[in-house]
Specification:
Order of helices and strands: HEEEEEEEEEEEEEE
Helix content: under 10%
Number of strands: 14
CATH architecture: Beta Barrel
Strand order of the largest sheet: 1-4-5-6-7-8-9-10-11-14
Radius of gyration: 27 Å
Strand content: over 45%
Number of helices: 1
CATH class: Mainly Beta
Structural class: mainly beta
Distance between the termini: 45 Å
CATH topology: Lipocalin
């Protein structure tokens, strides 16, 4: 039994090395003179990458109702019960990239595009449901539903300087341009005990561009396995639009229709970490990566609420609810170099 386990251990540890021998044995190219023998690609190559994303999105200040399972006391003039919030489901997305690595000069030029469409729905019902924003319809309310949608597009064009601090570590210090178009569309329906419904639609979108800087690391562990990490930060400036519409679907009456438009800065922080399996042949290369990725955005998510006035020509006060917006999830990458 012990001999069988020993043989199995030796076989499993040698498989990645055997795979590299088989996949690279037909390669007749020689490393360029300036590039010493390492555990990384040591010849100028083009890379084509395709990534499967399984992400979800998170936003702060996404409450739409308060639900209580029992009758609140007469003194409960403030929120009493459990807050209900809008949440995104996990959704597939993709990222594609094209990179050129120039070995004699140890630099790279890359272009990437990231796409994600996510949505989510939630609802609550009870004899004691209270909207968390003011409505024209009177209570008591017995149900509230929420539907949210996200369109996420990010493009990057950057150059990287490649460093090998030691034979087991490769660093890329990168910098370049970045652009983003992000839109969130949120629809809320409230229905009271008299079956009178009210619809609230909140939508914001941002389109901007700026600069991105960061670092990527590949740390060789053994048997063609590496630990791959990436951290970047981007600062952008662009146009921001926020719309708020409040209507009664049964009659078509409009109780609010406001638009907010400005130019603003936005910041993005990206963090990625996970194991990769790489075969860096002289003429071509191969990489599989399974990582977890975070993208955090500042100064984007914003809810605008206005307090009602007695007459339509009176002054009105506006309340802003702001919070972080971000995406996170599994990133699977296939990278081919030739």
């Amino acid at each position: 039994m012990n001999k069988a386990l020993l043989a199995l251990t030796i076989l499993s540890s040698s498989l990645p090395l055997m795979a590299r021998e088989i996949m690279c044995e037909q390669c007749e190219c020689e490393p360029e003179p300036c590039c010493p023998e390492h555990l990384f690609v040591e010849r100028s190559q083009w890379y084509v990458s395709a990534e499967f994303l399984y992400w979800t999105a998170e936003s702060d200040a996404m409450d739409y109702a308060v639900r209580s399972s029992e009758t609140p006391p007469d003194s409960a003039v403030f929120a009493t019960g459990d807050y209900k919030t809008a949440d995104y489901d996990w959704s597939p997305g993709f990222r594609v990239g094209l990179t050129y690595y120039r070995c004699p000069k140890y630099w790279e030029a890359s272009a990437e595009y990231t796409w994600l469409y996510a949505k989510g729905s939630d609802s609550t019902s009870s004899d004691f449901v209270r909207p968390t924003r003011l409505t024209n319809a009177f209570g008591p309310f017995d149900s509230a539903t929420s539907s949210i949608y996200l369109h996420y597009h990010v493009g990057d064009l950057y150059a990287a300087r490649v460093f090998d601090p030691n034979p087991h570590l490769r660093l890329r210090v990168l910098g370049g341009l970045s652009t983003a178009y992000i839109q969130q569309d949120w629809k809320i329906h409230y229905t009271n005990a008299q079956d009178v419904s009210e619809k609230v639609q909140e939508k914001w979108r941002y389109f901007g561009g700026g600069v991105r800087m960061g670092v990527r690391a590949d740390w060789f562990w053994g048997c063609q396995f590496y630990l791959t990490g990436k951290t970047t930060f981007a600062t952008m400036i662009g146009t921001y639009k926020n719309e708020e519409i409040q209507t009664r679907p049964s009659t078509g009456a409009t109780f609010g229709n406001a638009k907010y438009d400005d130019h603003r800065f936005a910041m993005n922080a990206q963090f990625l970490l996970g194991p990769s399996w790489q075969i860096p042949c002289d003429c071509w290369s191969f990489e599989l990566l399974a990582a977890y990725e975070f993208n955090i955005w500042l100064n984007l998510h914003e809810r605008i609420r206005s307090y009602p006035s007695t007459f339509n020509d009176d002054s009105t006060e506006t309340y802003f609810a702001r919070g972080l917006f971000g995406t996170h999830g599994l990133t699977l990458r296939l990278n081919l170099g030739f």
